[in-house]
Task: structure prediction
Amino acid sequence: MNENSDSARISEEAVAHVAHLARLRVTPEEQKMFSQQLSSVLGYGKAMEALNLDDVPPTSHPYPLNNVLRDDEISAGSSRDEVLDVAPVAQDNQFRVPPVLEQT
Amino acid sequence: MNALNKPAIELAAAIRSGEISAVSAVEARLSEIATRDAEIAAFVQVLNEEALAAATSVDDRVATGEDPGPLAGVPIALKDNLCTRGIPTTCCSRILEGWKPPYEATVVSRLRNAGAVVVGKTNLDEFAMGSSTENSAFGTTRNPHDLSCVPGGSSGGSAAAVAAGFTPLALGSDTGGSIRQPAALCGVVGVKPTYGRVSRYGLIAFASSLDQIGPFATSVADAATLLEVIGGHDPADSTSIPEAMPSLSECLGRGVEGMRIGLVAELCDGVSSDVARRVSEASEALAGGGATVEEVSVPASRFGLSAYYLIAPAEASSNLARYDGVRYGMRTESSNAVEMNIATRTAGFGEEVKRRIMLGTFALSAGYYDAYYGKALKVRTLIIEDFNRAYEHFDALIAPTSPTTAFEIGSRTDDPLEMYLSDVCTVPSSLAGHPAMSVPFGSGDVNENNICLPVGVQVLAPAMGEETMFRVGAFLESVAVNVAESVAREALTSEALTSRDG
Result:
């Protein structure tokens, strides 16, 4: 296991928080493991701190993307039945999910 | 059998002229897969009936005087993250097990229109996250050259399928090296086109600003033909380049006389000595062919891996939010919607996918965004600028594809960072969006199993520079010991032995 600078350390508590944000459940053993592994990867990334990036613009995409407009023409979309056929649970032409809001 | 194991271009020509039937060509490949794939596990799904039906239709068209297209009857394998309408597409994840896409990837439609016959879906690291194909939910693919070694990844199944002689062509996807690295480790040609050259419509997203579909083949010429078929603008992908696909086949055989080629110093750092030796032989061969070859520095490429392992997981954490158990894929039932989301994702994703989702979520989270993701985006700018500076003086660049030859199964699975370092030579051009390809160039030192495993040399070119890249790639192939051919010969020998036994 590569050990890196403590400044990049992601604690077990932080792992639990991030897992919750990502809608994942982690066991205490996984919290420990991910804490070590993610710290190691983030520690490697600390190498970038050697660079002076103050005046460098960020690049989120390799090519300049502009809005591309096209004529609004009617074309065949996906069929509703085909899409609902592969849903975990469908009912009355809709996706069925467990309660989102609790009844009061 | 020999006549049916031709390179793709020759096979298509023989089928178009009626000399060979597509059905016999496809049957031969299917029987090879049935005999030998149990030990290699390149495929997660073999489409026997669909392939024979498609081959029959190619033969019917030849019989009626129609031209079925440039890939008439050529068997092809598809990485299982490419959507095939009505045919399960899993990304080798439990969360998509059994999912049948209601639409087809543009590349798959283009292949069918060109007469190619899809014979199966190949194994990959779950959601293309990995460098060894060991992260698949459906088992590990083995390197056809040494079954105790990985084929590389994430497109390890496609690389192994071509290296084993199962199909002359395959498609993979490359986000940080997932075509080039397995191509190098399996001794075949693998190409990552310029970002936007090939439509991503129907490629299940990993990191959208990096993902690109590309060919695997046993020769540079076959890879060129396949890229010509799948490339070009597609209105269904808003990031697709509007320019027409150039003819790549025409660039082959022009040699490298007068070209200026740079050897990227940073990407040669820390590679194993046998790989370094082949790369320096490739430089000498290019110089011998009349090119000017000089070492060049692309300083920011040193930070490619650091930036990549923040940017790609960040994009993945966002892309994979869609697997919530609502619209497709698996669902683990629970009392309320949020608990259902959590239970589904926890049960459906494998460990590496969870690791990357968490890494990305962390890099994007409040308080850490500027220090991690924001910084990585700025490094991406520096990498592009440094490459562009190099391309002011050079037509193309070369580098190793992978720092080592294929490694033992299980040898890097305990340490994610060590596995990530497998991608150190390939991620810089991914971040830049530039094309790059791996060409087999001899083999490395003999390993513990007394086998010399293949080495790949990487050819890099500026954005839209595929013509230059293929010209250099074809030259390197012409002077290299062709590992892919020697494997195909081994495959034929084993075929002969099997049929004698039978």
